[in-house]
Structure formats: C-alpha cells, structure tokens
From TrEMBL:
Protein name: Uncharacterized protein
Keywords of this entry: Oxidoreductase, Signal
MF-aspect GO terms: oxidoreductase activity
A Pfam family: adh_short
Signal peptide: 1-24
InterPro entries given in the database record: NAD(P)-bd_dom_sf, SDR_fam
Keyword presence, Lipid biosynthesis: no
Length: 322
C-alpha cells in the first residue's frame, strides 16, 4: 500500500523543488568577487535578517565592518555570530550601538565614528520596522515610528557621516522596498499626526527612503559619493513580527515556500549595490534582483526637494537641545 504514496509524493516534491529553483533563478545573485580590503563599512540593523547577511558578506570580502545595532549587547552578539560563520578569522568587526528611534543616540554614534575613522566607504541604511498602523508608535523624539526609524533616522545619520563619506570613493545604500509604490507623501503632514488608519505608514516611509536616495544623489557635492536605493524582494525575516500572529505563520508557510527569499537571498541586491564595479558611475537609481528596477511610483521633483527641506527642519528643531 505504500507504493501509491511514494508514487505521488516523490514527484510532487520534485516538482515543488523545481518550481522553487526556477523562481530563485529570477531573484538575481551578486556574482562579482570584488574584495574590500582596507575599506570601512557601516551596516545598520546588522543583528538580524538582511542586515546580518550584508554585514557578514562585507566582512567576508575583508571590509572593516561597523556592526551598528540598537544596543551594544546585540551588536557584540552579532559580531560573535558573524565571526563564527566566516572562513577567515582575520575579519574586523566593530560592534557599535545606535538606537535609530533616538536622534541623540544617532548623534553619539556619528560622533564616535567621526572620532575613530578617517573615512567611510560603504554606508548601508538597512534597519527598519513594521508595526500595525493602529499601534501608533512614536520614537523618542515623537516621530511616527516608521517615518522616524526607517526614514528620518537614516537621513540624519547619513548627513552626519557625509564628511567621512566624501573623503574617498564611497557608496550609500538605502534599503527601501517595492512597497514604496503604495506609499504617499503628504507634505502638510509628514509625521502622520492626522493621517487616517488606511494610510500605509510602512509604505510611506519606504517611499520617503527612495526620494531621499534621489535627492541625496542630486545634492551631494563630492564626486566620490554614489547613492543606490534597492528593494531586497520579499524576504522571510522577523520584520513583520509585530503584525503577525502565530496562525499567520502557518498560513504564510506555503506562500513563503514559493515566493519568499531567505535573508541571504534578500541581501544580494544590497550587496550588489555596495560592490558591483559596473555601476560605479550610477547614482540615485533604484535596484531589485541585482539590476535596475523600474518603479511604478511617479516621482515629483518638488516633492523630493520639499521632503528634504522639511526633514532637515524637523531634525534641526528636534536636535536643538541635544
Ligand atoms: N523582509 C522583507 O520582506 C523586506 C522587504 C522589503 C524591504 N525590507 C527592508 O529590509 C530592511 C531589513 O529588514 P529585515 O527584513 O531584515 O527585518 P529584521 O530582521 O526585522 O531586521 C530589521 C533590523 O532593524 C533593526 N532596528 C529596528 N528598529 C531599530 C532601532 N530603533 N534602532 C536600531 N536598529 C533598529 C532591528 O533591530 P532589533 O533586532 O533590535 O529590532 C533589526 O536588526 C528593512 O529596512 C526593511 O524595511 C524587508
Ligand atoms: C494631508 O494632511 C492634511 C492634514 O494636515 C489633511 O488635511 C489632508 O487630507 C492630507 N491629505 C491626504 C491626501 O491625505
Ligand atoms: C566611470 O567613470 C570613470 C571616469 O570617467 C571611468 O574611468 C570609468 O571607466 C567609468 N566606469 C564605468 C564602469 O563606466
């Protein structure tokens, strides 16, 4: 009686396996072997998911990697884990604390980096959060949490590191998401104090990320700095842990199997943006699957400019007392 079972089950698994492999082949892989000896990189949110895999790969390629995490403890733990996975024990991993929900913490972090390093060659603005809209969480400085952590924190962090980024050829990687296509920027309510429940706060922050990358590329004076926005794809990480219940995970399992990338697969496009030499003269563009991505969103120059100016103003106001 076992015969019919194996007759169907084996081919079924084989078929599923093949479907998965075909999908994977479309996700793109960073194929270059560019080494990063003597370069210094920073990865935010490097203790988990995509950020962890980016930090590991940059260290594998011999960059000195500042593993920037919400607490020093998490950063140290991440460094240990990365060390354990590397083939060589010569990697230089520097654990540092940066709580992106606090402008004060970002300022302290940047001061320390500016003090201890001569130049920065790669900055990966990766950390991000996703909460249910209804929770209405705020950062320490009273910014809506998606706007504050995913966008404004990285805006501030990047501006504080611009001098070090301008010393030698460098790349700023902005980890956005294709969900930016569902986002909107309300210039009279950037911090979402009045927005309705329906607004997708996460998507809005990711749209702001893409605008930031475009505007940064346009404004930067140093010819050394290149800016790359990217979408890692749909990745199986802890990002949605605040929005998902246990039974969601069971429902998601089959979807995850077919459509979701591992963290390592999700890290490919950010790593590509950080290392690929054929795109060394490109800046301000968006990438996905290790190639340029045509966004369905419509971008308006004046929105990018006003978003930048208002963000700068918000930071100036909030950091006056720091
Ligand atoms: N997963 C996807 O499908 C997907 C799709 C498109 C884009 N992305 C983007 O990819 C990036 C990485 O996400 P992931 O999927 O790898 O999720 P993840 O595993 O949840 O990683 C997010 C990282 O951000 C850190 N972080 C959050 N709030 C922070 C804060 N206030 N200060 C410092 N660090 C903070 C987290 O630290 P803790 O561990 O301390 O919370 C964690 O290390 C995000 O920008 C996300 O928007 C993900
Ligand atoms: C933008 O925000 C203002 C509140 O300042 C609100 O009146 C308006 O309806 C919002 N616009 C959109 C398109 O949500
Ligand atoms: C980038 O520009 C420099 C200077 O113009 C040039 O030497 C180099 O070949 C260019 N790289 C690529 C990949 O086009």
């Amino acid at each position: 009686m076992a015969f019919p079972l194996s007759y169907y089950i084996l081919p079924t698994f084989l078929l599923l396996f093949i479907i998965r492999k075909v999908r994977e082949s479309k996700w793109g892989k960073c194929k270059n072997n560019v080494q990063l000896d003597g370069k210094t990189a920073i990865v935010t949110g490097a203790n988990s998911g995509i950020g962890f895999e980016i930090a590991r790969e940059l260290a594998q390629r011999k960059a000195h990697v500042i593993v920037a995490c919400r607490t020093l403890e998490k950063a140290r733990e991440a460094c240990l884990q990365i060390h354990a996975k590397l083939k060589s024990d010569q990697a230089v991993l520097i654990p540092m604390e940066v709580n992106l929900a606090s402008l004060k913490s970002i300022k302290n972090f940047a001061e320390e980096v500016n003090k201890n390093h001569e130049e920065i060659n790669i900055l990966v603005n990766n950390a991000g959060v996703s909460f249910p809209n209804s929770q209405r969480m705020l950062t320490e400085d009273k910014f809506e949490i998606h706007f504050g952590v995913n966008y404004l924190a990285h805006f501030y962090l990047t501006s504080l590191l611009l001098k070090l980024l301008s010393i030698a050829p460098s790349r700023v990687i902005v980890v956005a998401s294709s969900l930016h296509e569902r986002g909107e920027i309300n210039l009279s309510d950037l911090n979402h104090l009045h927005s309705t429940k329906k607004t997708n706060l996460y998507a809005n922050s990711k749209l702001a990320n893409v605008y930031f990358a475009q505007e940064l590329a346009r404004r930067i004076e140093s010819n050394h700095v290149r800016v790359y926005a990217c979408c890692p794809g749909w990745v199986y990480t802890g990002l949605f842990r605040h929005s998902l219940k246990w039974y969601h995970y069971i429902l998601i399992a089959p979807v995850a199997f077919f459509f979701m990338r591992s963290a390592k697969q999700g890290a490919q496009t950010p790593i590509y943006c950080a290392t690929e030499s054929s795109i060394e003269n490109e800046t301000g563009l968006l990438y996905r699957d290790c190639k340029p991505y045509n966004s369905k969103a419509i971008f308006y120059d004046n929105v990018g400019i006003k978003l930048w100016e208002q963000s700068q103003q918000m930071i100036n106001d909030a950091t006056k007392e720091l």
